[in-house]
Amino acid sequence: MGRASSPSASQGKNIKFKNCGAHQHQTDCKPEASVQFMAAIQGKHVWLTAFRDVIGALLSASPKITMKTDSDAIEDLPLDVKNITFNYNTNRNVIRSITSVSL
Questions:
Q1: Taking a C-beta distance cutoff of 8 angstroms, is the pair 1, 92 a contact?
Q2: Dist CA 96 CA 2 (whole Å)
Q3: Helix 52-59 vs helix 71-80: angle between axes, to the nearest 10 degrees?
Q4: Looking at residue 45, what is its pLDDT?
Q5: How far apart are CA 59 and CA 65, in angstroms?
Q6: Measured between alpha carbons, how far is 23 from 5 in angstroms, rounded to an integer?
Q7: Domain segments of the chain: what residues?
């Protein structure tokens, strides 16, 4: 997986990303989140990455946990989740969607 660009504060309402040099208005920036999961797929361990929208779908399995919950509680949730059905990009190992989750 490639390195993510990290923004640095610049003058006023713009942000310049150090790695790629792109500029973006601060008001257009949203907080992002990502997690990595190890899954057993066809007898092999595969590391998969999930981003904010997919994490939200996973968290929806528990009414007590949201994106604003303490990260320690969020880390423990996948231990209680069973029967996860998901689609992922096999080239990038990125989870595209979670279609089923149960506790």
A1: yes
A2: 17
A3: 70
A4: 95
A5: 6
A6: 11
A7: 1-30, 31-102
- The pTM of the full predicted model, rounded to 2 decimals, is 0.61
Q: How far apart are CA 85 and CA 99, in angstroms?
A: 5
Q: Give the CA-trace dihedral at 7, 75, 90, 56, to 10 degrees.
A: -70
Most confident stretch, 29-38, 42-51, 67-76: 42-51
How far is Cα 5 from Cα 19, in angstroms, rounded to an integer? 5
Buried b (16+ CB within 10 A) or exposed e, 1-31: eeeeeebeeeeeeebeeeeeeeeeeeeeeee
3-state secondary structure at position 59: helix
Among 41, 51, 44, residue whose Cα is nearest residue 1:
51
Give the mean pLDDT of 50-64: 83
Strand partners, 48: 37
